[in-house]
Amino acid sequence: xxxxxxxxxxxxxDHPQSATRSASDALLQAIDLAVAAEELGxxxxxxxxxxxxxxxxxxxxxxxxxxxxxxxxxxxxxxxxMRYENPLYMAEDAGAADLISGGRLQLGISRGSxxxxxxxxxxxxxxxxxGESDADMARRHTLRLLEVLTGEGFAQPNPRPMFPNPPGLxxxxxxxxxLRERIWWGSGSNATAVWAAQQGMNLxxxxxxxxxxGKPFHVQQAEQIQLYRQAWKEAGHxxxxxxxxxxxxxxxxxxxxxKYFGHDRFSSDQVGHIDAKTRAxxxxxxxxxxxxxxxxxxxDEAIAAADTLLLTVPNQLGVEYNTHVIDAILTxxxxxxxxx
Length: 340
Prior knowledge:
alpha/beta, TIM Barrel, 11 helices, 37% helix, 17% strand
């Protein structure tokens, strides 16, 4: 295990027991938590993106703000739904956020997940081309983004521009060199993991995937990672790829921990349907004393196969408690699993 970060879904609820009562609360606390996580020595601050929901939606202002407040921690997404994205505008936003952070952006993208509304991407002005599915459209947007991030010019310059142009075709600006190699694909199946490897993207694997064998979740996920690495090697890419997995892990070190997550000590995988066609396996949560967690996590084959672990955090419990959650893992559990 090389890196440990956190992943926040950014929920807010106008409820007396929620520490994030508004969008402002969720966003500002995300910045504070990233700063606190960097001070603890964590390696990454990642944020989920959902549209039409009381959660983070437009990630780049948040990522840029965190980039300006921190100096070392990786900042990223897990994941952005590419069905909703204009690839060129996204490249501009991502380039700006990456430059502000000094090249620390780790951009997780994907086809997306079940939505709050029907075909929400249509409200954003996007429709699949004839013969395409919405997943095909997401992959088409992705390939265009990857092309743009190479920095190659493609737009014919105006012969009478407002400002002088450099010679040749123009690219979108600002351009951030190296960002193309820090794009991750959030994969829910073996086939899309192989596709991500072929395209030269890093791999993000979450707490659920298509149930393709009936084996335990962590075993299926480890097999997915193995197929990804094999496809990467066969594609002939020169650099070493990165792989992250997400987990809900809570060290029970004080009364609050037992109150909130003590029941997860006996958690197990669950199987269900995320849509009418897709049977999925949902990974278990981990909770226990630090020694119990070390023993449990040592048997997780996917964590062993990945180089990055993202801890999902309960953001509605506030910055102070989530800082404690991260600190407990970094202090009492991670060193015994080979971190640092």
